[in-house]
Design goal:
With 316 residues, the chain is α/β, with parallel strands linked by helices. It is 37% helix and 24% strand.
Length: 316
């Protein structure tokens, strides 16, 4: 097997929850099995792989259970929700890969690292929370949460009230050296789930968890830079990136340069809640320099995209 380099593969929410009718834990595991088959193909082809993942729906489920049971049990803080989901999703990925490797006769193991991501306490996001989490509430409950628990709550277009939390820019991954060590020793690593558990550094250097949400792709980009990855692959719901998306003159992109990507951002080609953060995360990774590349495609086309048959490549 010829080594092809080190890849960080960021798998999106569609890797676990296909639609609203397939949300149970068995449904999520079955989806994980399908996605891990495609990543196993990468590994067989010679890639060392770190898998990162989103956790938004799963954190939402934990928060909802916590709210429902609050009359009997303590509620779960948001950073602990992140840690919980890193463990449970990591377990699914590890088991799916273990079984896939066994079936293919490959001696390989996956290991999950519960990962902390340092954010800056002076990040403007802390003054302007925007990321909605948890369930919808009526106004009375929302005002009670604001008064008694210090929540920031907003009314959501007539659908009810929701809690919003900061989404700060990640600065560094605490466990990056441990992740690199596992890679160097032949492990497939699952890490930086949900962008990492957000923590801040006190003046004495110690860490403390914060109630915030980190963008999964930005956290993955920071890790990719810190472990000197050769490839940053974002696996999402579309086979390729498009300009003029959903318009009569829509055009699929095979390859764009960093400069072209910046221009497309300036032209407003990428939706803020969809493709824009993915392209911005890739540019953050590419800005580190070197012979780095990035790729966007869906799970089913990972192998073909790596073979140059599809997907959208971002190159220097």
């Amino acid at each position: 097997m010829q080594k092809k380099g080190l890849a960080v593969v960021a798998v999106g929410g569609n890797a676990l929850i296909l639609d609203k009718h397939h949300q149970t834990v068995p449904d999520q595991f079955n989806a994980a099995v399908r996605t891990m088959k495609h990543i196993a193909d990468m590994i067989i082809d010679g890639w060392d792989v770190v898998i990162t993942h989103g956790n938004g729906p799963q954190v939402g489920f934990i928060l909802r259970r916590s709210e429902i049971a609050s009359h009997e049990l303590h509620e779960v803080p948001l950073d602990y929700c992140g840690a919980d989901t890193q463990g449970s999703i990591g377990y699914m990925f590890q088991q799916a890969l273990y079984n896939e490797f066994k079936e293919r006769g490959i001696e390989k193991l996956a290991a999950t690292v519960v990962t902390q991501t340092i954010v800056d306490s002076n990040d403007p996001a802390f003054q302007n929370p925007t990321k909605p989490i948890g369930s919808f509430m009526d106004e009375d409950l929302a005002m009670s949460k604001r008064e008694n628990d210090g929540w920031v709550v907003v009314e959501d277009a007539g659908r009810g009230w929701r809690r919003v939390v900061p989404s700060p820019i990640p600065q560094t991954i605490v466990e990056a050296d441990a992740i690199r060590s596992l890679i160097d020793n032949g492990f497939v690593v699952v890490a930086v789930g949900g962008g990492g558990i957000p923590v801040m550094q006190r003046e004495d250097g110690s860490l403390i968890g914060v109630e915030a949400v980190i963008d999964k792709d930005f956290g993955s980009a920071i890790l990719a830079s810190m472990i000197d990855a050769d490839l940053f692959l974002i696996s999402t719901a579309v086979e390729k990136v498009a300009v003029n998306f959903n318009k009569p003159d829509q055009k699929w992109l095979d390859e764009i340069t960093v400069a072209e990507a910046r221009q497309l951002i300036e032209d407003g080609q990428f939706a803020k809640g969809s493709m824009l953060p993915k392209i911005e995360a890739i540019l953050k990774f590419m800005n580190a320099g070197g012979n780095k590349r990035a790729l966007i495609t869906d799970p089913a086309h990972i192998k073909d995209a790596l073979d140059g048959k599809t997907g959208t490549w971002i190159v220097p």
